[in-house]
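Task card 7
Instruction: Convert sequence to structure tokens.
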Amino acid sequence: MTESHDVRLVRTAIDRLVEELEAGQSVRLRAYLSAMARFHRYSLGNVLLISLSCPHATRVAGYNAWRKLGRQVRKGERGIRILAPVVYRGEDETSRAERVVAFRTAYVFDVSQTDGPPLPEFARVGGEPGPYLTRLRAGIAERGIALQYVDGPAGLEGWSAGGRIAVRRGLRPAEEFSVLLHELTHEWLHGGDREAGRTTIRETEAEAVAFVVCQAIGLETNGAAADYIRLYAGDRKTLLASLDRIQRTAAMILDDLLDPYERSATTGEPLSLVVQRPAA
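Output:
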């Protein structure tokens, strides 16, 4: 496989991703966002209370919120106690601002305590990465990046920070492969970049690289990358603005995942993902 073939793989994948972004939000993404809008963002204190009461909680909501989502809390289930703010609003025009005057005990329930139709899920990568997953793990280790598998809530599949990548346990091989690619791209391109307002660019670049490589080895992307980029307000313009960085990063990963693997089948030549870091 020549370099020009790698470049063609990248360009073909990018063209497809642009088409998916221009198609607008998928039905799956719209359903997912509609459902997620019914879940509150809890304070750190309430997150700790939920974790203490139900360590394996993934999605929690109140009794009525679950009913609106078409699910019913099972009889006999014990609620998870949290603290809900009591809000006071002034009666005249000069004092209509809301303020918290007290807290009361409220109860929420995890999705595992309910019955009903499944919640809409975010699109996921499918298929089997085969030996490429093992080689990607090895390449990450060769670069001196620590790889850990941790317990965590659904929806937070992986994260990276300064030479460390963490992945949630229990992901299917194709999902893990995509997450590792995403986080490896963050390590290569965004290691020290925490500038405010650049989240859209960082997430677009990382997910686009993952999409390109997944496409190249034959995984089923199922619109997951386009939905993820839209979730972070990315679009065709954002993608094309970073096209050079995305292409170079994806091509280097493909060069190591595809070329050396084919050679090693007959020569036993070792694989490596130790390549020059893309220019920032």
